[in-house]
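Posting this for the archive.
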Amino acid sequence: MHQDLRASRPTIVEELVAALTPHPRGLRRWSVMRAIRKSREAVSREIPLKLEADVEREFRRFCRGDGLRAQGTALFCRPAETAGEVWALDAGYAVAGEAVERRE
């Protein structure tokens, strides 16, 4: 039963995508963290002390142009035309996501 509860929870990557999708130009890192915290509070989901470190690690793991990125698709980017620490969905990922939604 414990495994069933875990399966219904979104992963950190899914939470990042959900937080960034409504903001095509991106959000500051602080605003992304706040959005994830708020969504977790809304469903009474645990907010661990190391949440920010976990979110940052997953963002960097799937970020275009980041040395820590895993092999495969880049989901996120840091837009060059913005000042400060702004996170956004990678344009290629956003376009692919829209194509999938249109087919459904």
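The helical segments are 2-7, 12-20, 29-42, 51-61, 91-103. The mean pLDDT is 81.
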